[in-house]
Amino acid sequence: MAYIVLINPRIGIYSTVFKPFIPLSLLAAAAPAAQAGHTIEIIDQAVDRHWETSLRDRLSTRNPAFIGITSMTGAQLKGALKAAAITREYPGIPVVFGGVHASLFPEGTLMHPHVDYVVVGEGETALMELLGFLTTGVPLPVDIPSLGWKDADGAATINPRGPFHNMNALPDTPYDLIDIHPYLHTYFWEKNVIDMETSRGCPYNCGFCYNEIYNQRTWRAMEPEKIVRTMESLVLRTGVTNFLFIDDSFFIDSKRVMRMVDMLEQQPFRVKMGFQGRINSVAKLSDSELERLLAVGAVFFQFGVESGSPRILKLINKCLDVDEVLAMNQRMRQYESVSTFYNFMVGLPTETRDDVMATVDLAWRLLEENPRAYLGTIHLYKEYPGTPLYRMALESGYTPPRTLEEWANYDWQSVVLRSHDQALSKLCRAVSAASYCVDRKIEMLGDSRIAGWISDLYRPIARFRFKHKFFRWMPEARIFG
What we know:
The chain is of the alpha/beta class. It has helices spanning 14-17, 24-35, 51-61, 76-87, 100-104, 106-110, 124-136, 211-214, 224-238, 254-265, 279-282, 287-295, 310-315, 322-332, 353-369, 390-395, 404-408, 422-435, 441-445, 449-468, 477-480, and strands at 3-8, 39-44, 67-70, 95-98, 117-119, 147-150, 156-158, 185-187, 190-196, 199-200, 220-221, 242-245, 272-277, 298-306, 339-346, 373-375, 379-380.
């Protein structure tokens, strides 16, 4: 049996302010290998302060079959590259990159001298077959779907992607590979919340979203029986009773949702749950169905709104209008146990000052009309190659980074499409900065008392700015933005 090390890099400032997020992508990728009896060890840079020493120890004493590293685009690549560089000190141990960045930029990732293979998309099958090649010589890399590899001359080849996995046929997530306690965080006012994934992908085609490339608009879901069985196992084994479902679109299939409710109603344990989903999917639930969902523990709903401008909503193909958002906010305010969280972004292609202010108006109205409404930080739009808006970004003069090092320094707080309009760029940054503290989300979602105190002190100013749309003379943007 083989020994494998999987590495979860730090996520920049998020790994400083918030407790670490459970590495579900690595656990999922490891599940088939763990089920087959291979030894898997996960090194999480956000948990292990001495991760470099830990990695060197494993490399020098255990001779792993390969080192697998996941990463999103941006700051997480710094830790990924550092881990790859350390691995290169021990010749003969391959480095495999996976995750969102490697899936969006497979050729660029593979051509880095510290990278031997990339996995595009879901990693369960590709990693198992790659392990077979590295340990027995079969199958050959050319025959492994979703794998990127280099030939003897160093030329890169990206194999066609394999079919999406049936989530019900996959092994259960091997939570036992990690100590889950460092990952239990504060969410929807509850402590000791654990993340779960019960579906992958999204059938919609929002112009800004990576799902178009990564999941090819294919939504696939775990059956309620497996969901509830996993919840029950975690409750009995760890005592955890608070769950955050991190699915991009949990509510696509309302029948699946209600079958899960049916099963939870019969369970002896009681839980509290948070969900991510689309407003128009939740809107399909009848009042009685929604109330049954709340009765079994639903206390938190997170929705992507993106913009308050009808023109921008149409541009990004959100398939949502402002009236639907306001109606959902009114519906949710009826339930005192429910917190509702809305995500927005600014700095989109062709966006004007009026569009930005329409977003501010809608965000403020949601807070005013529902005392338990919260805003996600109003993010600054980022362009991903292959997304429907990417061509527009290039036509606007956007020049993307080329190397992994450049992507690692990608400034998520810049407004790259507005370099020609400094006033609008400054406004977008100011709106984003003020949104951090306009409500009590840092206390509801975070684990840092210091961040909560700072938010409390600044909140009156942030609310004044949103209410009056006053974002000039904003020196505090340097702190929050």
